[in-house]
Automatic annotation (TrEMBL):
Keywords: Hydrolase
Hydrolase in keyword set: yes
Pfam families (UniProt xref): Hydrolase_3
Protein name as annotated: Hydrolase Cof
Lineage, uppermost ranks: Bacteria, Bacillati, Bacillota, Bacilli, Bacillales
GO MF assignments: hydrolase activity
SUPFAM superfamilies recorded: HAD-like (SSF56784)
Entries under CDD domains matching the protein: HAD_HPP
């Protein structure tokens, strides 16, 4: 079997519903590396929000911030920041509509409010530390992703106001990631494999939510977790079990990367 490059989403994929890495996932990823395959993370999170996971799994390559900041073996190889003019306009609209906003750089994340219940709720579910207050953090530095906190109904104002200029990807009841137009995990993966000189046919990705749609349909073999919504499962070539039912191990076995080997991949 050719060497494979396998990307894993974090929340709902590497992490179970209790935000823990299942023991079967730890063992499976170690076996992949022992067998000579390359393993990377592909996530909407910023690098500083999954350093502990990288250390636990022994992974130092990743596609982060939904594809806008890509690192291979600890070295940045691609960055796609938000255009400053559009970020300024986004900020002005969010302030006008009284919606809090978070700015994500490669080494820190700040928010433009001191406190907001939408942020408390969303960050609480992810078990992340709430960013510090700095409403001018986005000025004069590269911001790879913004997060606007509003309801799905309120999101329409941003979609109509920035159509064709910015992409929006909802990840929760209140959280919506804002990316440069055309930005996605799939584009980050494209940049990654181009830098490594690998073939798309030798790439695999595991994911479970809306920001995984492009990635799952782009790679050679997209695998949706059993806990993914139907729209994500339809975008994938394969569907494995729920993350809490050893979904990663089952999916890798299904693809013939771990024993038993039905040889799905030639």
């Amino acid at each position: 079997m050719n060497k494979k490059l396998i990307f894993f989403d974090i929340d709902g994929t590497l992490l179970d519903h209790d935000k823990r890495v299942p023991e079967s996932t730890l063992e499976s990823i170690q076996q992949l590396k022992d067998n000579g395959h390359e393993v990377a993370i592909a996530t909407g999170r910023a690098p500083y929000h999954f350093q502990d996971i990288r250390e636990l799994l022994g992974i130092d390559s990743y596609v982060s911030l939904n594809g806008q900041y890509v690192v291979h073996e600890g070295k940045p190889i691609y960055g796609n920041p938000l255009p400053p003019e559009q970020l300024q306009q986004l900020t002005e609209l969010a302030v006008q509509l009284d919606h809090p906003i978070i700015y994500a750089g490669s080494d820190a994340m700040k928010m433009n409010v001191t406190h907001h219940k939408f942020i408390d709720s969303s960050w609480g579910e992810l078990k992340l530390t709430i960013p510090e207050y700095d409403p001018e953090y986005y000025l004069g530095r590269d911001i790879y992703q913004a997060i606007v906190f509003c309801t799905e109904e309120e999101e329409g104002a941003y979609r109509s106001g920035f159509e064709g200029r910015l992409d929006l990807v909802r990840w929760g009841p209140y959280g919506t990631d804002v990316l440069p137009a055309g930005g996605s995990k799939a584009e980050g993966i494209r940049q990654f494999i181009q830098a490594l000189g690998m073939e798309i046919a030798d790439t695999i990705a595991f994911g479970d939510y809306l920001n995984d749609l492009e990635m799952l349909s782009y790679v050679g073999h997209g695998v949706a977790m059993g806990n993914a919504p139907d729209i994500v499962k339809r975008a994938a070539r394969h569907v494995t079990k729920d993350v809490s039912e050893d979904g990663i191990r089952h999916g890798l076995q299904m693809l013939g990367l771990l024993d038993p080997k039905p040889q799905v991949i030639a």
